[in-house]
């Protein structure tokens, strides 16, 4: 077994902190902006997983959570979900982009932050969110990229954002997720803070909502009728139930079956570093056998 510590990134990375605006009439949930602090480096597995995702036309993953039966015994639950890539970066289809331009200030957030956290969307009435709450937010996501003969498992904790009422759980979720956000360097928006001030959680969630076609932006109230189209990206009924779930990865495993005679498996584990050492948490890589 070989254990190697991933080297600290040469790029100065910054963790982000939320500033809550306290003036004006805009709801607090829409006024939260980001300013730089100190940050996690890009995970060593991220580029390879990204390249596998990019080579896969439409990628679903299997999401496992922990439920409890009537005797309070833990029981596994798994289901298929559509992976929406790494939060908050999402390539919108043209119709969704048009809706964003028409209904959201400046079209969308400036592309100033990235993360190693995978995202998917869901509805609050489904069971996985309450299972996350009752199980310490434990989650595992699995991809099987058959054409690439690669399996990826991402284990960690997941947080859901998008509650328009901005209650305590929403604030906790945002605060956890922002720990994994880092400023993107070298793009048009730069890291001089100009883009960060315009970034908002509301726009981030709205973009995921816009990614659904109007007929899939489900109005929750059955009295409104099934199959209703929701063109309004801030439709209060549809948005009350819509959530973006973001996975904070803690352990990632890659299984490479390209050579059936010689399968290879690697595991990366996030190792906590003391607060204030300026390095951020580090990924330790282990090659597993068998
Ligand atoms: C191809 C496919 C994609 C799906 N995508 C999602 C998704 O992105 N989000 C989601 O909540 N459910 C999705 N579902 C439905 C889930 O598999 C599951 O039935 C639903 O989320 C309810 O699960 P739960 O009550 O255990 O939370 C998808 C199902 C399939 C077959």
UniProtKB/TrEMBL annotation:
Gene3D superfamilies per the UniProt record, alphabetical: Electron Transport, Fmn-binding Protein, Chain A (2.30.110.10)
GO MF: FMN binding
Residues covered by the Pyridoxamine 5'-phosphate oxidase Alr4036 family FMN-binding domain: 43-161
Pfam family, one: Pyridox_oxase_2
UniProt-recorded name of the protein: Pyridoxamine 5'-phosphate oxidase Alr4036 family FMN-binding domain-containing protein
Organism: Penicillium alfredii
Lineage per the UniProt record: Eukaryota, Fungi, Dikarya, Ascomycota, Pezizomycotina
């Amino acid at each position: 077994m070989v254990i190697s510590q991933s080297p600290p990134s040469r790029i100065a990375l910054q963790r982000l902190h939320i500033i809550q605006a306290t003036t004006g009439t805009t709801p607090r949930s829409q006024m939260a902006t980001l300013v730089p602090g100190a940050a996690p480096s890009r995970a060593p597995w991220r580029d390879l997983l990204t390249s596998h995702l990019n080579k896969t036309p439409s990628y679903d993953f299997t999401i496992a959570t922990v439920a409890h039966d009537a005797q309070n015994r833990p029981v596994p639950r798994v289901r298929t979900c559509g992976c929406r890539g790494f939060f908050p970066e999402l390539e919108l289809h043209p119709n969704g982009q048009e809706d964003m331009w028409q209904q959201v200030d400046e079209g969308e957030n400036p592309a100033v932050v990235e993360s190693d956290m995978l995202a998917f969307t869901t509805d609050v009435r489904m069971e996985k969110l309450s299972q996350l709450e009752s199980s310490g937010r434990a989650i595992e996501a699995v991809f099987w990229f058959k054409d690439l003969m690669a399996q990826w498992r991402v284990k960690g904790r997941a947080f859901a954002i998008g509650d328009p009422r901005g209650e305590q759980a929403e604030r906790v979720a945002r605060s956890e997720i922002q720990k994994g956000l880092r400023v993107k360097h070298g793009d048009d928006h730069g890291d001089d803070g100009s883009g960060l001030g315009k970034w908002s959680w509301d726009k981030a969630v709205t973009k995921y909502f816009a990614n659904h076609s109007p007929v899939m932006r489900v109005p929750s109230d059955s009295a409104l009728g099934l199959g209703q189209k929701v063109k309004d990206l801030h439709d209060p009924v549809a948005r009350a139930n819509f959530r973006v779930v973001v996975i904070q990865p803690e352990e990632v495993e890659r299984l490479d079956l390209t050579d059936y005679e010689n399968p290879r498996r690697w595991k990366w584990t996030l190792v906590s570093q003391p607060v204030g050492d300026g390095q951020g948490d580090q990924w330790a890589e282990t090659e597993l056998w068998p």
